[in-house]
Amino acid sequence: MTKTVLYVEDNFNNALLVKRIVQAEGHVFLNATDGEEGWQLALEQLPDLIFVDLRLPGALDGLALMERLKAEPELRDVPAIVLTAYGRSSVIKQAREAGCDGFLHKPADIRQIRAVIRENVGSTASGNKSTSVKTYQSLNTSRAQ
To answer: What tens digit of pLDDT does each residue of 108-136 get?
Structure first.
């Protein structure tokens, strides 16, 4: 079954990479270039998976967007993964506190992005096997601590 993946990212090349992976897995790709557009798309389209860059133009940065997403009843259970160049432990902690479900560092390995997609929404592309191998930092387990 085809799913929808939203990526909130203002860098064209980063968005293009994720778009190609999402489409290769057989899913629909949506891109927003700032936090406000990402918020509106999420509300309108109710995606099945959301990737968010932390550094976004405009008034709504990635952390603020993540907090909004996780506070919205229709979106709070949608897996939201931070995909950013900022990998300091303090940033990971802030992302966890904002409600993110996982964290990928840029430049992200294609296999890591694919693993996140397959783990959260599966793959509908022929010849692709679903995998549950976590090659990214999932924050679900650390939230309980």
So the answer is: 889 999 999 999 999 887 555 443 333 34
Mean local confidence (pLDDT), 47-75: 96
CB neighbour class for 132 (10 Å; exposed up to 12, middle 13-18, buried from 19) = exposed
Compute how many other C-beta atoms are within 10 angstroms of the C-beta atom of residue 91. Answer: 17
Cα separation, 12 vs 26, in Å, equals: 21
Q: Amino acid identity, residue 143? A: R
* pTM listed for this prediction: 0.86
Q: How far apart are CA 46 and CA 129, in angstroms?
A: 25
Specify the residue for token string 């489409």: 23
- Closest C-alpha among 127, 126, 96, 102 to residue 115: 102
- The letter for the amino acid at 130 is S
CA pair distance 29, 48, nearest whole angstrom: 11
Q: To which H or E segment does residue 144 belong? A: none
Strands (E), the chain: 4-8, 28-32, 49-52, 80-84, 102-105, 137-138
